[in-house]
Amino acid sequence: MSDLLSLSLTEARDALKAKKTSSVELTEAYIGAMEAGKSLNAFITETPDKARAMAKASDEKLAKGEGGAMEGLPIGIKDLFCTQGVLTSAASHILDGFKPEYESTVSQNLWNAGGVMLGKLNLDEFAMGSANITSHYGPVENPWRRTGGGNQKFVPGGSSGGSAAAVSGRLAIAATGTDTGGSIRQPASFCGIVGIKPTYGRCSRWGVVAFASSLDQAGPLTRTVSDAALMLGAMAGHDPKDSTSADLAVPDFEAALTGDIRGMKIGIPKEYRVDGMPEEIDALWQKGAAMLKDAGAEIVDISLPHTKYALPTYYIIAPAEASSNLARYDGVRYGLRVDGDSLSEMYENTRAEGFGDEVKRRILIGTYVLSAGYYDAYYLKAQKVRALIQKDFNDAYEQVDAILTPTAPSAAFAIGENQDDPIKMYLNDVFTVPASLAGLPGISVPVGLSGDGLPLGLQILGKAFDEQTVLKVGHVLEQAAGFDALPGFLAGGK
Amino acid sequence: MSLDKATVAKIAHLARIKTDDAQLDAMVGDLNTILGFVEQLSEVNTDNVEPLASVTGHGLPLRADEVTDGAYPERVLANAPDRAHGYYAVPKVVE
Fold first, then answer.
1. How far apart are CA A235 and CA A255, in angstroms?
2. Are B37 and A423 in contact (CB under 8 A)?
3. Which helix (H) or strand (E) holds B15?
């Protein structure tokens, strides 16, 4: 069983095509792995019966030499994607019992490509968080343990924490995530796996529970860069049901992984050397730059002058959009209802009980910055600074093809840390938020371990709709780093 | 700028979230911490900068103004906490 679980997504695809294994066999191995990994709390809902039926259908196609790009591959879906007839919770109490009557475009694309659904993965409530500790269904545990650190439990990052923990601990061969300010890349870094946020508009947002609509993007969390290329290709594509979805053909992302980055220019932004960043992160960043240089790229020092304003800009824009998006949870059409004597009281009671503290904080901040008299000072100001942040990147891409940065300013921290002050938690996303505000693609690739044995990732950022370069450079970095450390918990054993 | 308890209570009412006294005290502190953090944007010169609402720069696509979906009330109402006569049901609004 452990042999099957150790296959990457592309390896399993090749094994299925070569009939070395079957989807039913692979899927049964993962159903067993989900059971073995229950203590991680990575899944909110498991759908083993659905998985078995889908695997059987895939095997019939594979037997005839048919099937799509993801045929027979058992994956997990972040519980922010609507899945027809299967509880879709956004990890919130307020969506109690919600079983969508429709399927999100991204998950439908994956099923059309032959993917097999293992279940729905835990996350921060409404994807608001960087540690997966705000879920109504409880925190997710990172499968990694500190070397010699006993049983201390670490966060998997967030908000796609269940996705990252499941892929890292081999409870799923790959998983979907969503990234609004770093929610794919930061958990990928914390769990020692690969995560790519594509360009805003590359994947449809239709049927994805909305957090901040001008920022939200779906993407895959996988074990390798090749896997990310494969799965992103299956998720992406124009969708008339999402007016912000880009009407562009989806390139063959796997074909972009040529291994050749000779002559490419890679930018190192000086503003990402932030105060208080651990020495080992800086060292890893320099090591990553040296690897790309050895592969024939030219390293160029660049400046992104408005970097320090990205987080404060994000913490106006994202809550503003969230307060508007989350107005729909009113106890009338779906989910939780808490009765009251009047309609207004029913709304207030439902939202008081249904939302957790972090979600309430963001709704209140968002309501305030959009309110009469403060709109210009906060929201409009933030949109202007957002324009400057985007301009910084546009200017930089006159000089370079891609940008290399750390993914996060630290390794995973222990469950319970960074909870005393919301700003401390927000700082986790200091390196991922700027590209989110500019709508640009970014990938996190595992490159090394911290002094106490926890994984650390580096991030490659690219130009709009140039995921191919991001993947190509990420692939070279992955090959050079040769990251092969394994987490403390691994379904099926090592 | 700093929020007081009465202002936070007003925002909570605007957002239709019932908040008791103890929760309000905690929220006042948290919200002021966040507002203090975002305050640093005031030091950025944004004269003559157009606000960015859409990163793609694309306009919104248009289509013919016609019904393309619908006619399945059962599915629309399937998740309703309460329903009556083919409608969502809510507490009485008019006496």
1. 16
2. yes
3. none
Residue-wise pLDDT for A368-399, tens only, equals 999 989 999 999 999 999 999 999 999 999 99
* DSSP-based three-state secondary structure for A115: coil
Closest CA of chain B from A19, distance in Å: 41
On whether the CB atoms of residues A394 and A434 are closer than 8 A, the answer is no
A64-78 pLDDT tens trace = 999 999 999 999 999
Residue A420 to residues A40, A136, A316, A426: CA-CA distances in angstroms? 24, 19, 21, 12
Is A424 noted as a catalytic residue in this protein?
A: no
Q: Does A361 touch chain B (CB under 8 A)?
A: yes
A155 Cβ contact partners less than 8 Å away, ≥ 6 residues apart: A131, A132, A133, A139, A140, A142, A161, A190, A412, A413, A414, A415, A417
**b (16+ CB within 10 A) / e for A109-123:** bbbebbbbbbbbbbb
* Inter-chain residue contact B19 with A313, CB threshold 8 Å: no
**Helix A310-325 crosses helix A381-396 at what angle (to 10 degrees)?**
130
> Which member of A316, A331, A361 has the closest CB to residue B81?
A331
Distance from CA of B60 to the nearest CA of A (A): 6
CA A119 to chain centre: 16
Q: Is the ipTM of this complex over 0.90?
A: yes
pTM of the model: 0.97
